Automatic annotation (TrEMBL):
This is Transglycosylase. Residues 1-21 form the signal peptide. Belongs to the transglycosylase Slt family. InterPro entries: Lysozyme-like_dom_sf, Transglycosylase_SLT_dom_1. It comes from the Bacteria. Residues 81-173 form the Transglycosylase SLT domain. It comes from Pseudomonas turukhanskensis. It holds the Pfam family SLT. Keywords: Signal. The lineage of its organism: Bacteria, Pseudomonadati, Pseudomonadota, Gammaproteobacteria, Pseudomonadales.
Length: 191
């Protein structure tokens, strides 16, 4: 990708970011190199350009919660892979993670849910996989995305009901409203 195209891409991304987002004029050279390596390893994107645009955009948005660029790009690649595999929008999964754990992989709720997507530990026993570590991002994302996808299908595409099921608050709208709010205000990627 030429320097002119990169500059144009960065300008477009800057204009598309939500108000108040933590924005830099251009990515640091180390981040650019890391992003290029990550893009070439990303297997859930249709093409390289889509990967570069999405990863750069989301990395910029996520930087306030995860300062380490390598950790951010690794997580974003995992989120995109697991969400896509489960038929979910990766930006919706980021909004759910934002609400559930604020991107803390070691988060544990008062009822024992673990990891970024706050997966309940009983699922490990249900699957006969007691050895699974729910604070491992790849494992947590696989469980969480699969569960949310299942609930979305069970609720015939009704996102609010699916999110309420995911949270264990079916019949209430507070949780789903919060996730959808973060999705629309901060994480949503316009097609």
């Amino acid at each position: 990708m030429t320097a002119c195209i990169r500059l144009a891409l960065l300008c477009l991304l800057w204009l598309a970011l939500p108000a108040g987002a933590n924005v830099r004029q251009a990515p640091e050279p180390e981040l650019r190199d890391l992003l290029q390596r990550t893009v070439s390893e990303a297997d859930s994107f249709v093409d390289r350009y889509d990967a570069e645009v999405w990863l750069l955009d989301m990395s910029t948005r996520l930087s306030r919660y995860m300062p380490d660029a390598q950790a951010r790009l690794t997580l974003l690649k995992q989120v995109h892979h697991e969400a896509s595999k489960a038929g979910l929008k990766p930006d919706l999964v980021l909004a759910l993670i934002h609400v559930e754990s604020r991107f803390d992989r070691f988060a544990i709720s008062s009822v024992g849910a673990q990891g970024m997507m706050q997966v309940m530990t009983f699922w490990k026993a249900e699957l006969g996989r007691e050895q699974d570590n729910l604070t491992d991002n790849a494992t947590n994302l696989r469980y969480g995305c699969t569960i949310l996808s299942y609930y979305l299908k069970k609720e015939n595409g009704d996102l609010n009901r699916a999110l309420a099921r995911y949270n264990g608050s079916l019949g209430k709208t507070t949780y789903s409203g919060k996730v959808v709010g973060y999705w629309q205000d901060y994480w949503y990627v316009k097609p």
